Structures are given as structure tokens and as C-alpha cells.
Amino acid sequence: MALRAEHEIHKRRRSRNVGVGIALAGFVALVFALSVVKINTVGPVEGFDHTPRASALPPQEPAE
């Protein structure tokens, strides 16, 4: 069985696939970077678990 030369359409498909792969990798990197920046900026996030949180309650004055 002889080796066949690569057709031009395969070269075009490969270059298009490489371009789509680079664009996808760039998008993933952008989302990751934005997530890291948001997490570092906001700080720890408290989840919503249907219970009152001390940090969400208004400050109470000390009882006399």
C-alpha cells in the first residue's frame, strides 16, 4: 500500500481546526483569568443555605 500525498482540502481543514483550537484555548484562558481576579477581589463568598447569617444581620446594640 503506497502512501498518498495529502490533499489541499486536508491542509485547509487542519489550519482551520488549529485556528478554532487556539480561539477556544484563548476563551478558556480568559474565563479562567476573570474567575481568578473575581475570586481574589471579592474574597470568601458565603453560600445561600436558608439560614440567617451573622454577617447579613444588621448590627445590634448591646443590651442594658
Can you give a write-up of this model?
- With 64 residues, this protein is mainly alpha-helical.
- The protein has one helix at 8-42.
- The longest helix is centred in the middle third of the chain and has 35 residues, at 8-42.
- It is rod-shaped, with a radius of gyration of 27 Å.
- The protein starts with 7 loop residues before the first helix and ends in a 22-residue tail after the last helix.
- The model has no long low-confidence stretch (mean pLDDT 81).
- Keywords: Membrane, Transmembrane, Transmembrane helix.
- Residues 44-64 are annotated as: Disordered.
Any descriptors?
single chain, rod-shaped, 64 residues, Cytochrome C oxidase assembly protein, transmembrane helix
How would you state the average pLDDT, rounded? 81
Distance between the termini: 96 Å
Instruction: Work out the radius of gyration.
Output: 27 Å
The helix content is 40-55%
Q: Structural class, from secondary structure content? A: mainly alpha
Count every helix, treating DSSP H or I runs of 4 or more residues as helices: 1
Quote the beta fraction: under 5%
Q: Element order, helices and strands?
A: H
Q: Please state the overall shape, judged from the principal axes of the Cα atoms.
A: rod-shaped
Give a quick account of the main beta sheet: strands, pairing sense, barrel closure: none
* Total beta strands: 0
Low-confidence blocks of residues: none
Protein name: Cytochrome C oxidase assembly protein
Keywords: Membrane, Transmembrane, Transmembrane helix
